[in-house]
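May I ask you to review the protein record following this short note?
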Amino acid sequence: MSNPPGEYYTEERWQNWLDRIREEEVDPEDEDSARLLLNLQDDTAIAVAKILTDHDDDDLDEETALSELGDIEEVVLDEVTFDDEEKAMLVDGVQTSLMCVFYAAEEYLASGPADEGTIEEYVQAAGDAEAEDDLDAALGYCVQAGTLIIDGKEMDIGMAEELDFGFVAEWVNGLDSLQTAMSDPEVVEEEDEA
């Protein structure tokens, strides 16, 4: 029942992605650059999805699953330093998106999916809360939406396009990666250019 440490994700894996970002010309308008950042985000979301799946399959108890999540969260959300300010901002955006993924996973493990409301209603409430500068409430609503995605509900990513740029848009972007990971938890190869 116990898995070797680092089976889901390692600091080395995260650092490999960061090294690639340091080495490459990164332009968010460029498709390859955008894909690199998305792969970085998806790779982490896949690790989270695997923990959740193993927990649901009774391969991991709640305490172990939360511990594994915490280990990955510590690595991924740790402050990253880049000489290039734009790259630092882009990675910070990925970390912001993933923060919601971790919180949703932890909430799901501790309390299960949200009892009422739809993903759309939670995202709408999050957008409204952000407009009122209540970021704690906005994050809470996005986390609840995330628990529904983990539970198998489908999020219409078209919703994200209607959101104003801000934290909620970033968090919903992370939830989109989580949704993809939950439906197809295939590992993103670090060298995969396809």
Summary: Residues 1-5, 190-194 have pLDDT under 50 and may be disordered. DSSP finds eight helices and no strands in the chain. Residues 51 and 145 are 19 Å apart (CA to CA). The two ends are 35 Å apart (CA to CA).
